[in-house]
Predict the 3D structure of the following.
Amino acid sequence: MTDQQQLPPDVIAQLKALDPEIGPQLAQATWALLTPFHEKAGCTAPKIDRDLAYGNDPRHRLDIHTAGDQDQDRQGGRPVLVFVHGGGFVRGDKHTPGSPQYDLVGAWAVRHGYVGVTMTYRLAPQHMWPSGAEDVTRAVGWLKTHIAAYGGDPDKIVLVGNSAGAVHVASFVAGQGGADPTTVKAAAMLSGIYVIRTPEPGTPEHVYYGPNPGPQTSPIPRLLDSPIPLLFSVAERDPFNFQREAARLVSAWQHQHGTVPDLVWVEGHNHMSTIASLTIDEPALGTALARFVDRHTTTEGAA
Amino acid sequence: MTDQQQLPPDVIAQLKALDPEIGPQLAQATWALLTPFHEKAGCTAPKIDRDLAYGNDPRHRLDIHTAGDQDQDRQGGRPVLVFVHGGGFVRGDKHTPGSPQYDLVGAWAVRHGYVGVTMTYRLAPQHMWPSGAEDVTRAVGWLKTHIAAYGGDPDKIVLVGNSAGAVHVASFVAGQGGADPTTVKAAAMLSGIYVIRTPEPGTPEHVYYGPNPGPQTSPIPRLLDSPIPLLFSVAERDPFNFQREAARLVSAWQHQHGTVPDLVWVEGHNHMSTIASLTIDEPALGTALARFVDRHTTTEGAA
């Protein structure tokens, strides 16, 4: 047994029994199971500054989550955890009123001593590749100037992307859309896709990349030469495509570096519940993610 | 930050700076760094029953680690964590007086509410393949009869093998030497080898398997069809061979099952320090290992 906050075994069993295919059914069933735990744990940080504009598009918006303690916040120097949500490149938002999506990530960040940032970005089909990497670049640039006022250290930014958000983070790390990955300290990609193949019509990739994405759209191989530390995760109940991507990533990484990458296998969770496990089921992902953030934002820890 | 016990960043940095090649130098440097933390945390369980004979060979011995609370121990029903040490098939022991090797594993097990068992086994070259799997089988048989007297549930045995011990556990799970893996509830393999190839003279594999090990000596492919849940780990600073094994395992598992296996990437640690991370650096391995044990020994959690 561990003293950390964990989901009860019967809830994990119910999660594991869900059909892993991504869609409204999985989303509804997953959040119905988990929202009560978020509400109990508290999924909002003490202070949230909403809808700050990091660019001119209506989707160029981010929320900043802090401890709300003016003295502490003024002290500064905190790591800045920037969350990039998923939604198949065509939907999703940083915040859905009345739900823990994704204020819970900001609350988790604040609990661990970070400043939390939840950002959104332009969507396909209006905005196609590499708009995601461009928007992450734009948001990071804005944070460099403004995050100190919220207690964050502009030199300790860590990106965390989930699903399509993980693809945008991977795209940023690979330097697509003019991105400079050395402007952040580290990056985590949860249930992402790292090699872009010719997509079937109707798939999210077809909408974002168009029918014939060139090799320059794939985060791999440049992702393998990342100048910053990376963490990846795959959920026990992620669908086949994401499992295959994770296995191929391990293989390509080992081929390139002789080592296995930092890949977290998120026990008991699915494509939707991975990010929802933060705070309410810490051993699933939160423990490893916090250690990753701490390691790469603490000066002592630089090895 | 996390509230769990962790090693200070400067100690992790020192660990990461060590040459990862396995040998007396790595062992000495690693234990010199970590033993003070074990001594501070306490690396002995309240009660240790030593050198119980599970067979006729002088190496057929195990130690049982318990809370030493007669009422609690008599209650019974606890998971039983059985640790199989490493040592290149030719050396190593369950207990080295004056060192935390490997009473620390027993103490960790007791802290988490389990009964801890540390076992040793016959060594090569006197005893070659499949003597390791035979001895694990023998020890499990002995525990089935005797562990209830120590508060353990004979139907909740979980094996944890490290290095050569992981190979013996893999061999047991693959049914070698007459083993029946369904006699245990789950098995964890830390920094193991899963495909046995023609070994170079002078290597540990050459001593244990002989110069021409047949395909029947390889845990894979049968390991992939395990009837019990498995956890694997690889250390960030494991040497090349172990990294390659881990990557190949992921690839073979995904090919067979369509999913990635439960592989823990042990952040900051090396081949020797992975097992030493228990208790003193819980997020590295202990958190995931305890969750694995709990999941597969709790009736509610069976999904």
The longest strand of chain B covers residues 152-162. The mean pLDDT of chain B is 95.
